[in-house]
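User: Structure tokens for this complex, please. No commentary.
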Amino acid sequence: MKILANGMHYSALNAAVRMAEDDVEIVNCIGQRYIGAGLLRRQIVIHGTPGNALGAYLNGAEVRIDGNVQEATGDTMNAGVIEVHGSAGDATGYAMRGGKIFIEGDVGYRCGIHMKAFRTQKPAIVIGGRAGSFLGEYQAGGTIVVLGEHLNGKPIVGNFCGTGMHGGEIYLRTDELSAALPAQVKAERVEGELSEEVTALIKEWCARFGREEEGYLNCVYYRLTPNADNPYRQMYTPN
Amino acid sequence: MELYIRPDYEVVRNESRCIACRVCERQCANEVHTFDSETGLMRSDESKCVNCHRCVSLCPTHALKIVKTDDTYRENANWEAQTIHEVYRQANTGGVLLSSMGNPKPYPVFWDKLLINASQVTNPPIDPLREPMETKLYLGSRKVKIERGEDGLLKDTLPPQLKLSVPIMFSAMSYGSISYNAHESLARAAEELGTYYNTGEGGLHKDFYKYGKNTIVQVASGRFGVHKEYLEAAAAIEIKMGQGAKPGIGGHLPGAKITEDVSETRMIPKGIDAISPAPHHDIYSIEDLKQLVDSLKEATEYKKPIIVKIAAVHNAAAIASGIARSGADIIAIDGYRGGTGAAPTRIRDNVGIPIEMALAQIDSRLREEGIRDNVSLVVGGSVRSSADVVKAIALGADACYIGTAALLALGCHLCRSCHTGKCNWGIATQRPDLVKRLNPDLGYKRLVNLVSAWKHEIEEMMGGMGINSLEALRGNRLMLRGIGLTDTELKLLGVRYAGESL
Ligand code: SF4
Ligand code: SF4
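Assistant:
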């Protein structure tokens, strides 16, 4: 089903998406929020620019956007795929627990904050460009990969990467870590062999955005993980 | 060097009554009591006692009592024993002091400085046993647009409402901070009473989805257990911005308390810390809050009221005014005496304001701005009795949340040691041997008893005032008079002094 979105209020647009029996194509999207909120199986293709909280609580649907997305994309996402042929704003993948987000370009601040894993659910975010500050803040599970394809002279991640991190992993495709990392995070240099899981994620990103795998697999990565599962344990005295 | 800190309480055993049955030994998870096989006598190590009265209650011969120690430091009104001990503890460990349950400090309790009116002669009292009393109420936004359909008839534009048969709900307590059996008791009681309990931020256990229509689910910054079915299962969704016991402080459930079952419910791996910081890092303004409110409404197709819960803080009225414009249907305000499973002592004892003041100010502010009908107000943070409920409603609340009172009904003895995870009453613990001490079949009945009793008392007080519906009591501050209050306090509460006639 094709929906012409110009001038439509987000609640009307989202109601139409919910009611649709089959896959949906949204044309002329101009900032409507919450598209696909909580949606189960469904393909949604968006032309234009969706508003904040695209795919919030997404529960299995696949969303493809041929442009940029704004803030809080995939907030508390549980399952599904969001594929962005452009860049994403702040708090992308906030507390996502499952599913995958692929970004061709950059992400803003706080990408992957509160990301968690649960049983077989392992959320993943793959970013083609660079990430802003606070990447993976309070991360408790899942995988974030930053490929640093177009850095424009800037570092691959901003400041405070992994602050409060207590689970999961972050991969940065870089042969030098420029920014200082917070105390909770440890970094190891990975040359050559990447884990099967990360290899698969990178391959999938390449396939979705038409890149040669070669240039992304045989590179130096830095793998960031938390120092301990319970970084806050020692802080308290029972009173 | 660890300095010895003398215990505050002594375990006194009446040797002539004690039959050395060792019940106390089995009942005390703090391992205070031991049996000395040489002498055949019971011994106790009071340094471990938290004064939870479990052993006292269960001793078959009533041989035990816990008394305040008469060991004393040199008396000093400024440096009391507790204050001295806190310094010792921190010097011993270097840690932040951690406490639980509500603020125990002797701050004024304004509920106790408010008196309720009764009718005499001109406006006769109503006998609740004979006349109908309306204690039913609805929570939600009353912001309706008058719209007519094609047929010219009025369209129903009323936003979704929660229907309560009493103005009392059980406040947010997460599975993890309290036990499975405590949750089951609350859920079943809410169902029987026609009211709601609140999951807190720890997710909804799969066994309790069946109580969904009496359940309020919480969404906090860590988003534990939040997913489509969770949101859909509930009658309403509460966004937790703050908590009265620890305004400005987030939640932190240590990995040790994340058992298999708790991890399933929170949807996080076992043994890993569950951290939900105070700020929602996607909310920096009322507009951002509106975005979370709206995204939850979209995800649940506008079928459920959205509650925003804040701690009562200095600028609560201005904050509430913003929330009332954010699209939220209900504002929950939690006073500085509200309970908690664990909070830094300094925060619990020093941050926030009394719920009575916050409520009066918020209600007045929303009325002045003409937006009181945008939202319902629910207050908690130490509502201890039906009289507190009546006073809260007269000050402007639609309903109250009770937490500590509900736990007391389940057997809590306010030992304020929930953070140790060894609650001897099976409430604030995940240890299976302790959890099974709380029988939900009995627990839920005790909650039903408590709230039913309060309901009768509320009806009697209302009848006495000549008021036969909660609607007529809400915000009716003429039904209150202050006693022992300063002019400023009277002004903030919006009530007259006792004896001042119209
Ligand atoms: S901690 Fe409780 S059960 Fe143990 S001795 Fe003290 S009062 Fe008795
Ligand atoms: S819930 Fe248990 S540990 Fe907490 S105060 Fe009550 S009796 Fe003590």
